[in-house]
Amino acid sequence: MARRAGPRATVRDVAAETGLSIATVSRVLNGQANVAPHTRDTVLQAMGRLGDLAPRRRGAVGPDEGGAVYVRCPYVLTDYFGLIVSSIAETIELHGRQMMLNAGEAAQQQEVLSGLADRPGVDSAILILPPEPPEALVGLRDRQFPFVVVDPRTPPPRDIAAVSAAHFTGARRLMGHLVQLGHRRVGIIGGPREWLANDARLAGYAAPLADVGVLPTPDLIRCVVEPNTDNGYRAAGDLLDLEHRPTALVAFNDKMAVGALWAAAERGLRVPQDLSVAGFDDIDVSRASRPMLTTVRQPLEEMGRMAVTLLMRLLERHTLEALHVSLATELVIRDSTGPVPTN
User: Fold this and answer.
1) Rounded mean pLDDT, 293-314
2) Confidence tier at 2 by pLDDT (50, 70, 90)
3) Residue 284's pLDDT is what?
4) Mind listing the domains of the chain with CATH numbers?
5) Terminus-to-terminus CA distance in the chain, angstroms?
6) How far apart are CA 250 and CA 256, in angstroms?
């Protein structure tokens, strides 16, 4: 479909070009989730060829008709945060909007929220794991500034839109898998204690153990300030050096689980014959490790798409009945978990 001068193309034109139904093209234009990735890519490529003449979703604001979406991700854009931000950027573009990105660890020290509503050229925001206290979010809400929180650090107020993964359910399924394999003494390597996700996952891990009459004891739990590979290595080593070491380790994320693999190898422990290890997130490193990690897949890209969809509805002054959206996770069983050692 060549770019051309003239009237804006219609959804019917895109459907004819791609060979898809009008309903399918409409679902893509509205950012709905029930579209196969290759189908979404086909529509987006056709839209890109049309350029400024591409059809716009009904009620959407064009780049010259409204301000930019301010995306704040005060962390390094690695495989976890990078996937979320990339998905947000693609979906914002689909809605005909511009994005202003504030990212990197240095951004954690910047005072952003108090002046965001007055920032020139910005009319809304998406805040990813915001480090600011809840009071700052409430203050921004009270300014009637539209924003959505992705993966909130603390429990968001009920009238603030937020998107996250089902941390409790994912953790419960993972621990349930280990319990079925016979594990009862499981070491837990948690993330920052003040993070909402950490609380939810610790509760999820405890539930299957409680079902078989086991309660996690403090000596089997280690929480770290920064959930990275080095801290996972140190926490795992601490747990594996206990007189009665655990038969399995579950980590807050895949990076810390890789650190646990290092600690196990250093002590001559085979995974999973002597020790089972599991992570969370299902990022690339979970498949690059040896053995490949059993983990919980988070819908990172869908979290980004859903955040933009909620924000567009806020900008169009729609009523949101589900302000806190929790997206399903999936247990991915690979080679790093096995039956409890018989000895």
Assistant:
1) 95
2) very low
3) 93
4) 11-47 (no CATH), 68-166+299-328 (3.40.50.2300), 167-298 (3.40.50.2300)
5) 66
6) 9
